[in-house]
Design brief:
Strand content: under 5%
Strand order of the largest sheet: 1-2
Structural class: mainly alpha
Radius of gyration: 24 Å
Largest sheet: 2 strands, antiparallel
């Protein structure tokens, strides 16, 4: 860096970073959902618990899968549904957003493993049917997400919210579902039906509860269309921030930046630039 940025350039740089952050957050509902959860004490506490169990440093024997799944079940059982469901069903318009949703909101520790390849779907199905935790949740999912071909959205009237609650109830069980890739909203447990022998039809029927379920697909789309008001307020706040930054005059803009400074990660970038500038000046003084 040949010379330090002047105050005007630093201000313009910060404004650009703020506008970029605001525009990205306003377009990314998963970011809005995460921020709304962070702003809610109960949601953030429960989320911190499962993040610590599921995304923390791996133990010598691998991830603590049982504790991770238990923390996830607690998150979806006790957290505000509008916030927990928003984290789980937020729509993504980019692969980066989809990867974050797939890896963070249903961590790999709870979803896949312990082997490197997914097992036959018959294995987790049988384990679920013998589990006091999983079996009633699977039955609820089958009941509330049962497709109804005669209805446009694939669900019985007013059944979509119950379907989403039942699906969320499966997260943290032995048949924890998750998004399959970063380019679609397709979901399924971590399993396949390629080695199911003479039970191939049974296996495909179980996996089809997730991959070929018009009611579940319609319920997720309906949630997107009826985005909870608390989260819409979060999106509106980002759009309002961008508008105020663009409309503000130099004096009011400076005042706004002073009082809003700590809200943005741009602080880190600013201090890095400032530190570099000071380092160059100290070196110049030595010579």
């Amino acid at each position: 860096m040949a010379q330090c940025l002047g105050p005007t350039m630093l201000l313009l740089l910060l404004l650009w970073l703020l506008l970029r952050w605001s525009s990205s957050a306003a377009q990314n509902r998963c970011v809005a959902a995460a921020e709304a959860c962070t702003a809610d004490t109960g949601c953030q506490r429960l989320r911190t618990e499962y993040v610590a169990q599921c995304l923390g440093p791996a133990a010598p024997g691998g991830c603590p899968r049982a504790r991770c799944r238990r923390a996830l079940r607690r998150f979806f059982a006790r957290g505000p549904p509008a916030l927990t469901h928003a984290l789980l069903f937020c729509p993504c318009g980019s692969p980066a957003c989809a990867e974050r949703r797939r890896q963070t909101f249903v961590p790999a520790c709870a979803f896949s493993g312990p082997g490197p390849a997914p097992p036959s779907c018959l294995a987790p199905l049988e384990a679920c049917e013998h589990s006091r935790v999983c079996r009633p949740r699977l039955l609820a999912f089958q009941a509330f997400c049962s497709p109804a071909p005669s209805f446009p959205d694939g669900c019985q009237p007013d059944q979509a919210p119950n379907c989403l609650r039942a699906y969320a109830g499966l997260v943290g069980t032995v048949i924890t579902p998750n998004y399959l890739d970063n380019v679609s909203a397709r979901v399924a447990p971590w399993c396949h039906c390629g080695v199911s022998g003479n039970r191939q039809e049974e296996c495909e029927a179980f996996r089809g509860l997730f991959t070929r379920n018009r009611c579940l697909d319609g319920a997720i789309q309906a949630f997107d269309s009826g985005w909870p008001p608390v989260l819409q307020d979060q999106l509106d706040s980002h759009q309002d921030l961008e508008h105020r930054l663009l409309q503000a005059g130099p004096r009011s803009l400076t005042t706004f930046l002073v009082f809003s400074w700590t809200q943005f990660s741009s602080w880190l970038y600013f201090f890095a630039v400032l530190s570099t500038c000071l380092s160059f000046k100290m070196m110049a003084l030595k010579f």
